[in-house]
Amino acid sequence: MADLKLALFDLDGTLVDSRQLIHAAMDDAFRKSGLPGCEYDHVRKIVGIELTEAVPMLLPSDYPADGAARITQDFRESFVRMRADGTHLEGLYEGALDLLAHLEREHWLMGVATGKPRRGLDHILDAHDLRGFFMTLHTSCTGPGKPNPRMVHEAMAATGTRAEQVAMIGDSTHDIAMAINAGVRAKGVTWGFHTADELTGAGAHEIFDRFDDLRGGLDRFGGTLGMAAQ
Fold first, then answer.
1. Residue of 14, 63, 87, 173 lying closest to 72 (CA atoms)
2. Tens-binned pLDDT, residue by residue, of the chain (230 aa)
3. Which residues partner with 7 through β-bridges?
4. Which CATH architecture has domain 6-17+92-229?
5. Whole-angstrom Cα distance, residue 189 to residue 210?
6. What's the Rg (C-alpha) of the chain?
7. What is the dihedral of CA 57, 61, 67, 70, to 10 degrees?
8. Whole-angstrom Cα distance, residue 26 to residue 24?
9. Is the pTM of this model over 0.85?
C-alpha cells in the first residue's frame, strides 16, 4: 500500500543502553584468556556485528581461531551472568518508550534488526514489555548480519513495504551501512556506541542527538510519504 511506513530499529545503543554491560563482559572474557582486558573504545566499534565475526576483529590477526571461539563463548557466559546478577543492566534509554508509543499512534509499522542473538532480543522485549510494538523481528541468527542488507529486506517483505517507505534507526556505522546497502533511509543516533562524525562518514542521511529530535525527523519522513501517496 502507498501509505505504509516502517521504522526499523537497532537495539543495543539505540533503544537499550547496554554499553557498560557489553564492555564489562568482553573485558572479563579477554582476561579469562590471559589477555590484558579490552578497552571500551575498541569494543564499541564492533557492537552490532555478529559476535563470531566481531571478536576476531578485537584480536591480533595471528590469534588462534580456537582461542577466539573460546573468548566468544566466555563473553556470552559473562554477559548472561552479569545481566542476571544485576551487575549491569540493559535499561531502556529515557524517551525510547515514548517514541515507540508515538509511532504506534501515528500508525507506523515497526520492527527490529539487531546483531543480538534471538534469545537476547526476546529477553529485552519481555523485560521491557516491548513485544506488542513490533510486527517483525530480525537477528543475525538466521543469516548474514550487518552490514549485509538481508535483515532489512526480510523486514520489507514481512511488512509489504518498499525501500522508500523504510527508515532504519541505529547508533552504529554498521546500522548505517546496512541501511545504505538496502536502499532505505539511514537515521543515526548519537547516544549509543558511535559518534556523529562516524555516522556521518558512514553515509547517514540524518543524525539525531535526542529522542525528541528523532521523533521530529520520523514525523517529517512520514509526512513526505503521506504527501507522495495523495
1. 63
2. 558 999 999 999 999 999 999 999 999 999 999 999 999 999 999 999 999 999 999 999 999 999 999 999 999 999 999 999 877 878 999 999 999 999 999 999 999 999 998 999 999 999 999 999 999 999 988 899 999 999 999 999 999 999 999 999 999 999 999 999 999 999 999 999 999 999 999 999 999 999 999 999 999 999 887 655 54
3. 110, 167
4. 3-Layer(aba) Sandwich (3.40)
5. 8
6. 18
7. 10
8. 6
9. yes
Cα-to-chain-centroid distance, residue 126: 17
* Catalytic machinery residues: 10, 12
Domain boundaries, the chain: 6-17+92-229, 19-84
Could you tell me the CA-to-CA distances from 104 to 32, 119, 201 in Å, in that order? Answer: 44, 25, 31
The type of residue at 120 is G
